[in-house]
Amino acid sequence: MNPPPALVVMGVSGSGKSTVGAALAGALGVPFVDADDLHPLTNIEKMRAGLPLDDDDRWPWLRAVGDAIRAASTGTNSGTGTGTGSGAGSGDASTPATGVVVACSALRVSYRDAILERAPGTRFVLLQGDREMLLGRLRSRTGHFMPASLLDSQLDALEPLGPQEPGLTVDAADTPEAVIAEVRAFLTRSPDAGDAAGATGAAGAASAAGAAGAADTP
Questions:
Q1: How far apart are CA 147 and CA 65, in angstroms?
Q2: For the whole model, what pTM was predicted?
């Protein structure tokens, strides 16, 4: 019997992580968690003050994300208590394994490694899109605008999934239904995380900037 799916839908702002993640969770019949809800209070206060997070701020958050995924995947208590949202790791040791889909930027390999250290069965779905499409989406959001410079910093920070990473790259311009179909096919081909490294979706072969000079924003 295959384990319940444990997926992180990742990408820069405007790629559709939350929209696609929630739709994917519904299609797979598992809970959906927005990783922003798992930030510790210190991070939330810093962001409310308009201060960017650095990696020292991110590591506890990424551990909490991994613990939440592990809890949902195995039915064990995450034991971190760092998140502020309901999350996937709020149950006790008797909570059944449900699987989970998490929306999380996870732009760098080191960030994904931090999640995998806590939840080794996690697989990643990278929503990859071109700059103009992403910027157009951000500008169309009601009451929200991200300057092009901030989107560019995320694109510069993005490190695409490598051949040894368990995951799938898909086109962020695709509909949620199309992405769900690709992920379902991927899960059918690779039921175990160890067999899932380095897959690429039909429309996900476009290149993305991999420079590591700019900081990821939550």
A1: 27
A2: 0.80
Residue 104 vs residues 77, 83, 96, 115, 149: alpha-carbon distances, Å: 21, 14, 23, 10, 21
DSSP H or E stretch at residue 211: none
DSSP string, 77-93: -------SS--S--S-T
* Residue closest to 88 by CA, chosen among 104, 64, 124: 64
Listed by start position, the domains of the chain span 6-200
Which residues on adjacent β-strands are paired with residue 101?
A: 7, 32
- CATH class belonging to 6-200: alpha beta
Encode pLDDT of 23-47 as tens digits. Answer: 999 999 999 999 999 999 998 898 7
Residue type (1 letter), 75: G
Rg (CA), the chain: 16
Helices (H), 99-165: 109-118, 131-140, 148-157
CB atoms within 10 A of CB 169: 24
Q: Find, among 119, 46, 123, 121, the residue nearest to 80 by Cα.
A: 119
- Residues in CB range of 192: below 8 A, 6 or more apart: 2
Contacts of 46 (CB under 8 A, 6+ apart): 53, 57
